[in-house]
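Researcher: We're teaching a course module on how sequence relates to structure. For the next exercise, students receive a sequence and then see the predicted structure as tokens, so they can try to spot secondary structure elements on their own. Here is the exercise chain.
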Amino acid sequence: MKFYNKTGYDLDSLIVNNKYIGHISKDSSTSFIVFDDITLDTGSPIARLSALMNDMAVATPVYGRCGTEMNVVTEGVYENDIITFDWDNGENSIKGIDIRYRWEENK
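Model: And here is the predicted structure for the students to work with:
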């Protein structure tokens, strides 16, 4: 998997699926990173990310997936954007990061 930082911020101590990646500058990308397996949902990779962004801890949300179209693969090349989002649960507004699959690059 390869990740492009589209957050507008430098990311420090980036961890993807429990693998330490480290620093990724804004508007830059990682090299391709090998994982033992990757979970896909409807053909798109799912990844758990955490990092420091502007000295603030951010992570992917904990939310359920449907599961009917999920499968695990051990081969493949996947390019993804790391993006930010704001989530409001009614009590708190939370800033987080997630991945967006690059469909055009992965045809």
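Model: If you want an answer key for the exercise: The CA atoms of residues 26 and 71 lie 31 Å apart. The chain has a mean pLDDT of 85.
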